[in-house]
Amino acid sequence: MEVEESSSGDAPRIGRQPATSNAQLSHLGLQLFIERGFDATTIDDIASAAGIGRRTFFRYFSSKNDLPWGDFDTMIASMRAYLFALPRTSRCATPFAPRSSSSIGSPKTSSSITASGWTSC
């Protein structure tokens, strides 16, 4: 049995190295979905292409439906943290800020942060 340093640096990880990653499985799964179609691609097909067993697949994803999304929840959390850290004045200065017809040509002058971290301009 191998002992290796963990990525967090806390304690050594005992066992063999991971055979794959979420990103690798997502990539392989998406390739198979493109080639065969989502419904025609089985978890066994994806696991076989990755060189892992069916049970190992479920350590990475809870279902085939989760595979195309990758680590979407982490990306969303990261994006929310980034947007929330922006200065208040720049939160309304995006091309995505809604504008009413009466505000065209006149800059927004006030903004307030809501409980969710978004602003109402």
Automatic annotation (TrEMBL):
SUPFAM superfamilies attached to this UniProt entry: Homeodomain-like
Region (Disordered): 1-22, 97-121
The entry's keywords: DNA-binding, Transcription, Transcription regulation
Domain HTH tetR-type: 19-79
Bias-annotated ranges (Low complexity): 100-112
PROSITE patterns: HTH_TETR_1, HTH_TETR_2
Name this protein carries in UniProt: HTH tetR-type domain-containing protein
Source organism (scientific name): Frondihabitans sucicola
Lineage: Bacteria, Bacillati, Actinomycetota, Actinomycetes, Micrococcales
